[in-house]
Write a structure and sequence with these properties.
Number of helices: 5
Strand content: 35-45%
Distance between the termini: 103 Å
Structural class: mainly beta
Radius of gyration: 49 Å
Number of domains: 4
Strand order of the largest sheet: 12-24-14-20-21-22-17-18
Order of helices and strands: EEEEEEEHHEEHHEEHEEEEEEEEEEEEE
Shape: elongated
Length: 437
């Protein structure tokens, strides 16, 4: 036979289906073939095992086929190489006819081994031909190379250079930054050539939490215009619980720290309103709630049986309770003091007095209502005090003090105020709260 090609390997990519891979070069024995599997994504290689992973057909001085036991996946390649044994096992007879076939096989095996060696040399580092005689091809010893980098001196000779294997070489891009001789040049390389210490910086160019209190000067405060502060406005502070790191809070958050005083929740202005509803979705645990009723005008005269009252709402979307209430009242009209248990059971009385409201001019009333911890699941007591003008009646001023409760433990989720008969012609109703602790 003859060897007309220098190829001694061939590679294929798996497809989860193909199992027969042609060997495009000549070989003699099955053991002359080596199969290497390489994971494409990682480059990790492993040598496959004859018979276990594949079989070989052909050979005997010709080409052949590698037959995979299982089709290689599409994520790997199979490289088929010739690795002819580097021994010579043919003995020629001392006399007699020349066994030309044996002689040719011996020559072919020698060429195959030469091709294998050349294939390894082709994958090796070499010096240019013009440098060959001038350069040493021997590396420093392992002792000299320990914990150092392989480098080259001014003459191009290999040397061991000081350094540690735990040091990370810079990237190609970073090398372009390190060779800049000035800060301005480095900023230009990084794409920020228009910045300097004295220039302004866009917000997008500042990392989150990158500016601390040392960069905020007192003089900066004078640069801001005076405005009216709202509870939702924010301010910066040093968090004592987090090593003084800068945090943000709202004005309302600051007010919440004040243990006394009421905070506003909501208000409703009446205009021929048959009911006033407050606090729906805004009743929180840990607070007492108060309702201030200001300059309220009823369309019908108030009486002990027809008085303005408060009802409790319960449930997610409040259902207002219309029964089960118990009331007491202390009323002062002119020089008369009247104390009585009120007959109404459909709510907690707020104010009751003859002749307030109706068609009489200026017959309006004010009242404050206090409800203790309505978000707690308990029987809730309510207290109110009110004062009204009864200009067309027997007394100019009427005062009343009312207290009541409902005989059921429950969580209050809303408040409803009713005028009695008629409606609230005018009036403002303000809901506020105060922390219990």
């Amino acid at each position: 036979m003859t060897l007309n090609t220098t190829n001694a390997d061939v590679a294929y990519t798996g497809d989860n289906a193909t199992t027969a891979f042609p060997i495009t070069f000549d070989f003699f024995e099955d053991t002359d073939i080596e199969v290497i599997e390489r994971i494409i994504a990682t480059g990790v290689e492993s040598t496959k095992t004859l018979t276990t992973d594949y079989t070989v057909t052909g050979g005997e001085g010709s080409t052949g086929t590698v037959n995979a036991v299982a089709a290689p996946a599409g994520t790997v390649t199979w490289t088929i190489r010739r690795i002819a044994e580097q021994t010579q096992g043919i003995a020629l007879p001392v006399a007699g006819a020349l066994p030309s076939g044996n002689v040719e096989e011996m020559a072919d095996r020698g060429v195959m081994i030469s091709q294998q060696i050349q294939e390894q040399l082709d994958r090796s580092l070499t010096w240019p031909k013009s440098d060959f005689s001038a350069l040493a091809s021997e590396l420093p010893s392992s002792v000299d190379l320990g914990n150092k980098f392989l480098a080259f001196d001014a003459d191009g000779e290999p040397i061991a250079s000081a350094g540690s294997v735990d040091e990370v070489p810079v990237s190609t891009f970073m090398a372009t930054v390190l060779d800049d001789l000035t800060a301005a040049a480095a900023r230009a390389t990084l794409g920020h050539g228009d910045l300097s210490i004295l220039d302004t910086v866009d917000t997008a160019d500042i990392d989150a939490n990158a500016i601390d209190e040392t960069k905020l000067k007192d003089a900066l405060i004078a640069d801001f215009a005076e405005v009216v502060v709202a509870t939702g406005d924010s301010f910066l502070l040093g968090d004592i619980g987090d090593s003084g790191n800068t945090k943000r809070d709202t004005i309302q958050g600051l007010l919440d720290l004040i243990p006394s005083g009421y905070e506003f929740v909501e208000n409703v202005t009446a205009s021929t309103s048959s009911t006033i509803e407050l606090g729906e979705g805004n009743i929180d645990a840990g607070f007492d709630y108060g309702i201030r009723c200001i300059n309220v005008k009823n369309s019908a005269d108030l009486t002990p049986a027809n008085q303005s009252k408060l009802q409790y709402g319960t449930g997610g979307t409040p259902t207002y309770q219309t029964s089960g209430y118990v009331n007491q009242e202390l009323k002062i009209e002119s020089t008369t003091i009247v104390a009585a248990g009120e007959a109404i059971t459909s709510g907690v009385g707020i104010i009751s007095a003859d002749n307030i409201g109706g068609t009489g001019a200026g017959e309006t009333w004010d009242a404050d209502i206090l409800i203790s911890n309505p978000a707690a699941n308990q029987k809730h007591r309510t207290f109110s005090w009110g004062i009204g003008d009864a200009q067309s009646g027997t007394a100019d001023i009427v005062m009343s003090f009312n207290g009541g409760k409902r005989e059921t433990a429950e969580v209050i989720t809303g408040f409803r105020i009713l005028p009695g008969t008629g409606n609230f012609a005018t009036g403002t109703f303000i809901l506020a709260r105060r922390a219990i602790a």
